[in-house]
Amino acid sequence: MQTIxxxxxNTTEKEIDLIVDCLKRGQVIAYPTETVYGLGCDARNxxxxxxxxxxxxENKKKPLIVxxxxxxxxxxxxxxxxxxxxxxxxxxxxxNATPLAPLVRGVKQGPITVxxxxxxxxxxxxxxxxxxxxxxxxxxxxxxxxIDRAGFPIVSTSLNKKGEKTLASVKNLEKYFKYxxxxxxxxxxxxxxxxxxxxxxxxxxNIKVIRK
Length: 212
Fold this sequence. Notes:
The chain is α/β, with parallel strands linked by helices.
């Protein structure tokens, strides 16, 4: 396992290129998201997704969240109607856009993951064989830059073993995991320890908050 230290407020082109190269080669990364530390890979690569499940100790196909860099990528992998898009433009923001308040009562502003009907592109190992996909447009400039440079969505699942607490840093992973990611991106101790809110947006007239 290779480890690199980064400053989330000042990542270099060389660092981004290294991370993207790992993703393109089907490797798994441990990386900071805007919520918790996560495990990630090319969401299109079934073997890389299997490796994440092996690291976490997952023995069955479990749907995983993916991160995207813009609405164009969203439309490539999901079916989105005009009302759903109107909602998403209010709870998400693209780079340089002004964030707006969410439309779901009781859900505060913050990282929001939504469930939509997926297009038949991504592997069953990622989606659990379901016709839906959970995805998020992050607010982190580092994540946006990384995904945009890669040109494909990346997996975002918590950095932990099945049923255990999410790790707050990438230090001493070799003492915790039996199988290790290929690259650990050390941005210091995670300041936030709460996962994103999860909203089922497939029926825009009956929006369901799955996780607050």
